[in-house]
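Internal tracking record. Fields below are filled automatically when a chain is submitted to the structure queue. Please do not edit lines marked as system-generated. If the sequence contains nonstandard residues, flag them in the REMARKS field before resubmitting.
Queue: standard
Priority: normal
Entity type: single polypeptide chain
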Amino acid sequence: MQRIALILLLATTNLFSQSKIDLSYYLPQNVGYNPSIPTPQSVIGHNVGDWHITHDKLAEYMKALALASDRISIENRGKTFEDRPLLLLTITSPENHQNIETIQTEHIAATETNTANSAERPIVVYQGFSIHGNEPSGSNAALVMAYYLAAAEGSEIDDLLKHTVILFDPSLNPDGLQRFAYWANTNKNINLNPDPNDREYREVWPGGRTNHYWFDMNRDWLPVQLPESRARIETFHNWLPNILTDHHEMGTNSSFFFQPGIPSRTHPLTPKLNQELTKGIANYHAKAFDKIGSLYYSEESFDDFYYGKGSTFPDINGSIGILFEQASSRGHIQESDNGLLTFPFTIRNQFTAALSTLDAAYNMRKEILDYQHNFYKNARNEGSREGNKAIVFGDEKDAAKTYHLAEILKRHRIKFHDIKSDLTLNGKNYKKGYSYIVPKNQKNTRLINAMFEKRTTFQDSLFYDVSAWTFPLAFNLDYTTTSTANAGEQVTDLQHLKGGVDAKSEYAYLFEWNEYYAPKLLNAILKKGLRAKVSLKTFKANGKSYDYGTIMIPAKNQDITTSEVYTFLNDLAQESYIKIDAVTTGLTDGIDLGSRNFRALELPKIAILVGDGITSSDAGEIWHLFDTRYDIIATKLDTKNFRRADLSRYNTIIMVNSSSGLNESDTKKLKTWIQDGGTLVAYRNALRYLNSKELLKIDFKKNKLVAKNISFEERGDFRGAQVIGGAIFETQLDRSHPINFGYNNNKLAMFRNTTLFINADKNSYNNPIQYTKNPLLSGYISDKNLDSISSTVPLKIGGVGRGHIIAFTDNTNFRAFWYGTNKLLMNAIFFRDEM
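SYSTEM-GENERATED OUTPUT FOLLOWS
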């Protein structure tokens, strides 16, 4: 029987490898198509599904359609890190195109007034494809969908386009799509091989899921830290689409999923009607999939909780987000539990879902337009009830961090003001220029609540993603409620604090370490070859108090003149938005500038371990931090080349989350390098590796989990409830320790998504960061884990010979928007010899 099955499988495979799939496989039957509209094949050179579309060919076809069709206009909204265009097609009737600005104005106006006519207004649908580059069926389906919308003829398509404006994003992740298409195409056989073990279905590290810096961009809709996100968020707020679709892929043995997700896992701020309308739209998907005989499911998986995902972000903005998940062929054909899964089949399913979305939008148009109108009407009423309430946030010593949170608010069209004058609330100082006030009474009050709230109670204990993202905690900013009476002018032209040197000195210059871009400034100083020192103690000079970690640059005994030192520092200070103080004497109130408590600093020479066994997103976040914010060059050192690498080139190696660590010989090499004076900075599961190899002794706190009164059916939920998917906890800081230099407060909010608990050291000075007794600030954690984390430490520092290991239980650079703990990594690097 096995032999017969194999023969049938091979015969089917051979049959498919010789057959050609053309557009008729995808398109609706009994529809005529305009022959003047170019087909995908006529532009890209192959049938849809024969090869994985590369982004350059995808862009070429979209431009060709816009040139040929009066239903389509195209714009380039920017570029990716790899300089690929971020294209958007606006697809609607030719008559609507002639009136598109008025349609847009009236659409936005309906969200800002108490009355709106939805009888004739078009519904706006944003269709986005393949935000994960190695989930390519979406962008390949975009070829067929765009052709259909441009070329289909008849009263049905005319009526659809008359009543619909489609914002069509053929590739949400151009860099990832290009990377994956290259992989799948270069490993394709002429005789297609469905064996899951074939190289075609096993991408090399880091894979095509992510963008250039290995970010999962489907987590960036709310933080908006990446160029691709910023382009689509600007489009979103310019139009406020009624429906937004997000086309993904999942495991090969699955079928097709469309929302709603699991009902109990919807964020409480999302209106109930949103989910009811989502379910109404789902009926159109079901009908369409029934017609073509494709398996599907809904309400059994995924969730609508984290507003940073594409299918959930719309829900807090008066829109309806729809997630599609198609079983992935990964390459061109693969065995699955549901039979042979072909790439064209996955494309057809995505096309079918895209088309059924428009069918739902057309038929539910008035209902969905009314929902959005009422969403904002109700939101304005909620805001009105807030009266003169507002939120003030800031850091009296770090204007740049404050600026970057304000920048996110600006991107989301949230209004904020300068403070009228300096004020003190709840013991915290809010300085003008370092703080902003957000009135609660405004259109986006619900989005403000979603960004600033601290939530610790939940209907469900399972989360597809993080359970907390409170922005002022992520930025380590002071914040509290206040009155709009403290608000000054609304900020319409957000600007960084102006930096510079206050005067030329013949003695020395000082700047504190508090500002976010201080590491950028210090790195440039050391790279120039100038001598710089860090203060291990506090002191006063020129009537000003200077905190731990203050940087001192002597004016004399440098390789350049004192005038050149001044000019160089002034230029750098302006670029880094930092104020540098000139001093004329080494005498201070406290340690003098020639004290041994000022320690000489060395230029960091950094390697980041990447490659097999390393979590690419964690590594990418650090690469992005160094490269785009601090102008620090770091070598990406692949684990497979570690044995041959000359480690003497580096004084710092960073090992992010690792599933396996290094092999025995590489571990010995690493240990020798540390003993010779190197510093290893490690994160997350790399700590288990360090402990098992006896490089760093770590006293992990044991947590035995015993299931009582849990059925077999409930076992998965029981285990899942013990996962810390992403929550925020309070720590106590010893600010005199170099790891904490630059922090203004003795408390710090830290993100964590591991269950690595480390017992505190018996000597308190070895616990520079320690969780408080009741540390939960925001997010979900089980009672058992909350008890376990109490008074433990998220950091372990140890010496090995002349070197150091600095180990964090959790990622301090999470998703590029955890500005508040970036400084911990920079301190570990610049002040490594003082730990």
